[in-house]
């Protein structure tokens, strides 16, 4: 490779690194302001001011506040997915993996979305917009759950059944543990069934 070509590749890599760093700075600042003031009360000018730059500079990386919100949602869901992978794949049995996944998602939702009202606001808006990033996340988790159920079937832990259908059913049966709005409604209504009760009910259906 010629020196000029090497220099061009190095310059491109450096530009990509700088862009990635700026994107992360914007997202970190936006998340901090959204958490403190709320999504609806924070605008792009506020984010730019906090970063010591002009709004025009923000728009070089994100077309709108909604796009920043989507990027933050993607980052939050990536953390949720990583937790799901560790929970589902890290357990010795399929049932233990599914149990750890469902209860872990419930704890994460309570800690990061409901206990902070401003974050809850962000999540509710994201769900209302029906963003593709949320649908993609749900599908990735569904595949994880289906794979673990298939392993449980092969091991004789679960009865013979369609793992994909079972995955859909398990996730729908436990959606009340990870959907922020449903959790909030259940807490306010004082439901008697515990998260553990719900998970065990869903696991019995697989057996």
TrEMBL record:
Organism the protein comes from: Endobacterium cereale
SUPFAM superfamilies per UniProt: Homeodomain-like (SSF46689), Tetracyclin repressor-like, C-terminal domain (SSF48498)
GO molecular function: DNA-binding transcription factor activity; transcription cis-regulatory region binding
Domain of life: Bacteria
Membrane-crossing segments per the record: none
Start-end of DNA-binding region: 43-62
Pfam families membership: TetR_C_27, TetR_N
Keyword annotations of the record: DNA-binding, Transcription, Transcription regulation
Name by which UniProt lists this protein: TetR family transcriptional regulator
């Amino acid at each position: 490779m010629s020196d000029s070509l090497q220099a061009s590749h190095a310059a491109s890599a450096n530009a990509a690194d700088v862009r990635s760093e700026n994107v992360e700075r914007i997202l970190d600042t936006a998340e901090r302001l959204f958490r403190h003031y709320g999504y609806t009360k924070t605008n792009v000018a506020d984010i730019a001011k906090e970063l010591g730059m002009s709004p025009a500079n923000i728009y070089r990386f994100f077309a709108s506040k909604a796009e920043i919100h989507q990027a933050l949602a993607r980052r939050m869901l990536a953390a949720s997915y990583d937790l799901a992978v560790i929970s589902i794949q890290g357990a010795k049995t399929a049932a233990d993996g599914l149990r750890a996944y469902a209860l872990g998602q419930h704890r994460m939702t309570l800690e990061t979305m409901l206990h902070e009202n401003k974050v809850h606001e962000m999540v509710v808006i994201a769900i209302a917009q029906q963003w593709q990033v949320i649908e993609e996340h749900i599908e990735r988790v569904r595949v994880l759950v289906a794979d673990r159920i298939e392993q449980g079937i092969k091991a004789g832990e679960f009865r013979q059944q369609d793992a994909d259908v079972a995955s859909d059913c398990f996730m729908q049966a436990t959606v009340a543990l990870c959907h922020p709005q449903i959790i909030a409604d259940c807490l306010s209504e004082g439901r008697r069934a515990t998260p553990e009760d719900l998970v065990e009910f869903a696991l019995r259906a697989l057996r």
